[in-house]
Design brief:
Blueprint lengths: L16 H14 L11 H8 L3 H14 L2 E4 L3 E4 L4 H25 L2 H19 L3 H18 L3 H12 L2 H6 L4 H19 L3 H24 L6
Antiparallel strand pairs: 1-2
Length: 229
């Protein structure tokens, strides 16, 4: 299984340099290349990403605002580390937000939005067939974000973004088990069908269960010592 993408060390350019750096760091955190609790060594990261400290520090502040990184007084920054209780509690909250997103989206989604979600879904299926987990997860996350956007509720979108950021790395790891990954793919097939059928109640129930299944998979891996949060 291809779990990660290569992190090519090339100069980054443009007016949003710190955002590009933040995306590189975000991917490393999500894929576990920067482990929970790991200190962010500015000198090493500057060399690896070929950038100066100013955009790196701006990127780190962005990730801290998202909840992926903790700023440590007089000690720099470290990747967020969650306890088992934190993980369980946060998944319970995001399950409710996902369910609300699904129910509203089913009644408010446009044909254009539905077509975009279908296109992402087919790309995601292709990534699953290749066992390309990195690409699969990126497309999977885009689908969940698109469903949330289709709900048409700005407060829900802001809250979802804030809570979900804390779980990105764990949601990625929940697919390490092939059987559970296959189940998640099947659940996504049903999500698209329920969206098309405009079945709000059905989609709410499915999305809540989908997220709680991920919670259970993550907690199982944590208790087995296979992942840390």
């Amino acid at each position: 299984m291809n779990k990660t993408l290569p992190d090519n060390v090339v100069p980054l350019a443009g007016q949003v340099l710190h955002q590009q750096v933040a995306q590189r760091l975000r991917q490393r955190i999500v894929e576990g290349r920067l482990a929970p609790g790991a200190k962010l060594n500015e000198r090493e990261l500057c060399e690896q990403l070929n950038v100066s400290r100013t955009p790196l520090r701006e990127a780190i502040r962005m990730l801290a605002a998202e909840g992926l990184v903790e700023l440590l007084p007089n000690r720099g920054a470290a990747v967020l580390q969650l306890s088992e209780r934190d993980v369980a509690d946060t998944f319970e909250v995001i399950a409710g937000l996902e369910g609300q997103s699904g129910e509203l989206a089913a009644t408010r989604i446009t044909e254009t939005q539905l077509a975009e979600i279908r296109a992402l879904h087919y790309e995601m299926l292709a990534a699953h067939l290749r066992r390309d987990l990195s690409t699969y997860y990126r497309l999977n996350a885009q689908i969940h974000t698109a469903i949330n956007a289709a709900a048409g509720n700005a407060v829900l979108t802001r809250t979802y973004g804030q809570v979900n950021a804390r779980l990105q790395a764990l949601r990625f790891r929940s697919n390490f088990d092939e059987r559970k990954w296959a189940r998640a793919v099947d659940e996504h097939e049903r999500m698209v069908a329920l969206l098309a059928a405009r079945d709000g109640a059905g989609l709410r129930a499915l999305m809540v269960q989908h997220v709680l299944n991920k919670r259970d998979a993550v907690l199982e891996l944590m208790r087995a010592g296979e992942v840390s949060a």
